[in-house]
Amino acid sequence: MAENATFGTPSTAPAEALFQAEAHPKVHALVASCLHALIGADELIRFEIRPPGGGTRAFAGGDLHYDPQLSAAFTRYRLEHPAVQSYLRPKDDCRPRRVSDVASQATWLSSATYVNVFRARGGRHQLSIVTHLDGRAGCGWLLTRTLHDFTDRDVDMARDLRPLLALFGAAHLYAPICADDIRLTRRETQVVALLGGGLTANAIAHRCGMSPRTAQKHLENIYRKLGTNDRVTTLHRLHVLNLFE
Q1: How far apart are CA 226 and CA 192, in angstroms?
Q2: Which of 9, 104, 162, 238 qualifies as a cystine partner to 94, CB 3.0-4.6 A?
Q3: What pLDDT is recorded for position 127?
Q4: Residue-wise DSSP of 151-179
């Protein structure tokens, strides 16, 4: 499936505004507590699918911390997820759904998304609640269970809660990455320094004694970790986080 496939139902807020909005972690924690109480899950994940090429950010754990490993894995395999594929179908209504609503158990358990992202996490059964979707970006919540699937009542509850979750999301989307979330390797730090000096990928490769392909891969990893997709926004993000002089 093409990475630039558009989502079904337009969001009332433009993607640019969603990414610029400031989030409040306490609000997300409160929402997570409500979802646990009203529906119940072994794990609850908040996700942000950025515009094509921008990757996915995932927040998990009891404090919904930014999880770079989960973010990277889901970015790579998200289009293999049966639920994501269903949301991308033309005229989809974006209602909450179980993975079992859109794929057989055999299809889901053999999918690259389950095998590489969720099997080790015990995410066999899933219920997704997408709160915002447009042609470029989306966000929402993913509830997972290991032993038992979500019931029809759980799905109905998710549908009832979705408008409220969307209201929270409209005001508190896309929590900014803090400096503690960034884990650049020594080589990536060297590449960033050269990037800030105006060097191209080929020039960086020559300076570091690596192939242009390897230099480009380092840049892609840096962009993914920072949630950016070009030189200008990357350097700006590093300055904002006081990670680059």
Answers
A1: 12
A2: 9
A3: 97
A4: PHHHHHHHHHHHHHHHHHHHHS-SPPPPG
Total of domains in the chain: 2
pTM over 0.70: no
My answer on whether 233 and 123 are in the same domain is no
pLDDT at res. 245: 52
Instruction: Please give the Cα distance from 87 to 8 (Å, whole number).
Output: 6
Using alpha carbons, list the distances in angstroms from residue 151 to 64, 81, 93, 105, 121: 25, 20, 20, 16, 21
Residue 178 lies in a domain: no
The three-state secondary structure class of 45 is strand
Q: What is the CATH number of the domain that holds 72?
A: 3.30.450.80
Q: Which of 1, 87, 105 is nearest to 47 (CA)?
A: 87
Domain contains 94: yes
Measured over all CA atoms, what is the biggest interatomic distance in the chain, rounded to whole angstroms? Answer: 60
